[in-house]
Amino acid sequence: MTARKHRTASLALVVPAVILSYGCAQPSGQQPIEQEMVLIPGGEFTMGKDGQDDDCPAHRVQLDPFYIDKYEVTNAQYMRFMRETEARVPEFWGMDEFRSGPDWPNHPVVGISWKEATQYAAWAGKRLPTEAEWECAARGGLADVDFPNGPTLTPEGANYWLWPKLQSSGKGLLAVGSYPPNGYGLHDMAGNVGEWVLDVYDPDYYRTGPTKSPTGPKKGKFRVIRGGGWHSGPTCTRVHFRNALRGVWRDFNLGFRCVRDVPDAASQEEALSSHVASQEGSASHPAGRRDNVP
Ligand SMILES: [Ca+2]
Questions:
Q1: Distance, CA 254 to ligand 1 centroid (Å)?
Q2: How many structural domains compose the chain?
Q3: How far does residue 45's CA lie from ligand 1's centre (Å)?
């Protein structure tokens, strides 16, 4: 079995799909949170790891600065998109077992295809992150780590499937931001929901792709997903772990977040200066060797 087929099968967890019409009533319970964006300074960072898998080898990649959503896109945010665009209702919508629908405003939206994620992003004036941008953001500025906050992951650090006990955390999908952020202030880069990114999947891309702002191969059958979800084992939540599904797939373990470009060189300079100043005033970084050289 090829790496691609193996990886694809690992997320192909199928349950009977029920599509329910969504109501436009105000979400009950919690007040919907507002999405925030965080500046990622860009520069060079080490992407991938050493070895023979599809996330190898470790290599230096250079990125321009960009903004990324602090949280996964929520049900409430996706509802606004549906109301304004008459977009298709997500798979599993209205199913409480997947915390999907208007009663769960601050839970991440699931059951959307890659194309629907890109349509939401365009509507919001954003786009999906490239695979390189996503991995840079997930690393939180740390080098030589497997997880967003350091070399190890515990059940207190992210919402994931407690492999190998073959049981979930017992919590199922949780509201975004239920776990501590990484060094960039981003929540749930490991777990809760896996996340669509922009790139087409190529198992050799870490060996053959460009090192300046890579955007993925031009053609391919699968789209990359990153970060693992509440129904994924800890292996899938590693910052360098790559997975892929056909773009038409809709999964209860899969959502997304968006990025926005910093528009021009002057804006990039200003954003970087602001970022450096904010970092100098912050004392709450996870332990580990720093990476990213603006
Ligand atoms: Ca996630």
A1: 8
A2: 1
A3: 21
Q: Based on C-alpha coordinates, what's the Rg of the chain?
A: 18
Range(s) of the domain holding residue 123:
4-290
For residues 109 and 243, the answer to whether their CB atoms sit within 8 Å is no
> How confident is the model over 198-237, as pLDDT tens digits?
999 999 999 999 999 999 999 999 999 999 999 998 999 9
Region of 51 (left: φ > 0; alpha: ψ -120 to 50; beta: rest) is left
**Centre of ligand 1 from the C-alpha of residue 273, in Å:** 28
Alpha helices in 54-204 (DSSP H): 75-85, 114-123, 131-139
Q: How far is CA 242 from CA 84, 199, 221, 274, in A?
A: 33, 11, 15, 32
Residues ≥6 apart with Cβ < 8 Å to 284: none
pLDDT at 268: 72
Residues around ligand 1, an ion, CB closer than 5 A: 188, 192, 227
2 CA → ligand 1 middle, Å: 25
pTM of the shown model: 0.86
Helices (H), 102-181: 114-123, 131-139
CATH number of the domain at 56, please.
3.90.1580.10
Question: Helix 114-123 vs helix 75-85: angle between axes, to the nearest 10 degrees?
Answer: 80
Burial degree of 86 (CB within 10 A; 0-12, 13-18, 19+): exposed
